[in-house]
Amino acid sequence: MRLRSTSPHGAMRLSTVSLAVLCVVGLSACGARVDGGSDTSASAESCVDTSGDTVKIGFLNSLSGTMAISEQTVHDSLQLAAKEINADGGVLGKELEIVSEDGQSEPTVFAEKASKLITSDCVAAVFGGWTSASRKAMLPVFESQDSLLFYPVQYEGLESSPNIFYTGATTNQQIVPALDYLVEQGAKSLFLVGSDYVFPRTANKIINAYAEAHGIEIVGEEYAPLGHTDFSTIVNKVRSADADAVFNTLNGDSNVAFFKEYNNAGMSADDMPVVSVSIAEEEVGGIGVENIEGQLTAWNYYQTVDSPENTAFVEAFKAEYGEDRPTSDPMEAAYTSLYLWKAMVEKADSFAVDDVVAAADGITYDAPEGKVVVNGENHHIAKTALIGKIGADGLIHTEWSSEEPIEPDPYLEGYDWADGLS
Amino acid sequence: MDIIAQLFAGLSLGSVLLLAALGLSLTFGQMGVINMAHGEFMMAGAYTAFVVQGVVGDAGVSLLLALPLGFVVGGLLGLLLEATLIHRMYRRPLDTLLVTWGVALVLQQVARDVFGAPNVDVRAPAWLSGAVQIGGLALPRTRLFILTLAIVCVVALALALRATPLGRRIRAVVQNRDLAEASGISSRATDRVTFFIGSGLAGVAGVALTLLGSIGPTLGTNYIVDAFLVVVAGGIGQIKGTVIAATALGLMQSFFEYSTTASVAKVLVFVTIVAFLQLRPQGLVSVRTRSLA
Q: What is the annotated signal peptide range for this record (chain A) (predicted)?
């Protein structure tokens, strides 16, 4: 005798439940809400206490979640800078007291914690943020509370807030020079590969405008969702498009899957070089040097930069955190940001936000990457662009550099071809 | 020619999904346990490959060693989880979901503390690097290897379920737990072994994935959603369904992705599965059973 099936019911319930779970898991990775914090602009009165021997500053990095892998390194170099500054007598004679908060890789948490650092810890300035989503979430908090954020990562530009200093590259200091380099090398066609979110989309819009003006053909433009793990189809498309170079704006773990696939499919830097803007020294180890050797990167700093300032920085970092820890562009930009703030405060002779901002223009600092200059108007800094090649030693070696620091131009106003982008 | 390349890409993606979902089809499909930590067992397998390579050195030998070791490591973790937590809540699937989700987060943090937050690298052996060229087609050797491995795993599992006394006991418990117990089968012991095998397969998948993707604390989260999708679409309780669903999903994703973009393809795949489950809530293949699942 056959038992009558009772399974469809049970199966349906389980599958409904698991689909619901899948949706929640999928969505939580995106953290889509961007409206930052509470709008308590009435209480914009600063509560920063500068009467004692110490002054508080906040470090806000993701120490947990998917971005922890990157942001922990920035946190480490911020700690190093603070330690050095304190050992050297502090800022205006006051010792820095660090309040660390974990952004948990969630833009909404960044906004909450920023608000907490400003209003209840009363810090004089906050250093941190990595993803553009986290910055966009924090921006209204810093503006409404009239406090200061130092943001250390290269980003997509088209932004400038009176309350944020951007110490990473904007597009005209990273992407545009990378394109200039490719043109110089005779590239006539490009394939664009990126993660599917704001930075790659904006970057590729800029690249398309540039390409049109410079007679470069864009033979393909592909986006992979963040966390995408299978690149066989995209690599197939890249292979059959046969471009002169690939411009890669993938972010995070996707880079590992992409380069392994690229390599496994038998393609190399000699056939079709890949220029990446999100791969720094610490990612090279995770991708595997053998998968990425010879490929190109665009940044403003490499561990191999040859200057006394950088030698000192690298030595200090390794002494603090271990010989096997590399230094990278965002880490250097974070380190630099603390020194820039110190210089601004000392020039202003005040910790008050308005005084610091007023003093910012023209502040220079001999950073590990070379001399940087703060632009008081758009709050970015002039930086030298460096195109690097990944070596067998896992480090990135400068292949080409802009002759001098490039003035920041977040809205690309100085470029005719970029009309209508912003 | 592109069509054939895409066909291979789809089959290959299918085999990756199959490896990730095969263990789940046992623990979720057969036992009805929603184990959110399944992905972390894969992660444990991947780190096993990393550790083995650190000890052995030679990439080829270490890969072949890591496969059985990954199985054992994943299996033991599963056994531990089953013995400490899951067996207390067989009748409460939603609680299991939350508990195992918590365990997953704990395991991720443990990996972060032990191995560090940055990704680590496992070198592929020389005999797996590059591609096999067949008339203008380039078939990456790593993908051929994974395809083979998936087939081997499926065949071994199917044989174990069909032809061994253990397999008979597993099927008996799945189809009717009370009757199986009444016939003298220890359902506790059977549950443990089933969970060991299912988790062990996650470990094997993790070792294989080191050839393709990143090896970091969050490796598992990248695959867990797709793995559940495969099992749900394939139908609860049948390996056949899982195999078909994984292949179909792989092919769908790769062809959709070829004609549109990766993001749109993902949406299309989800929509297709939701629509499919509306028509056939029990999945592709369903087993006649009186048990929970």
A: 1-20
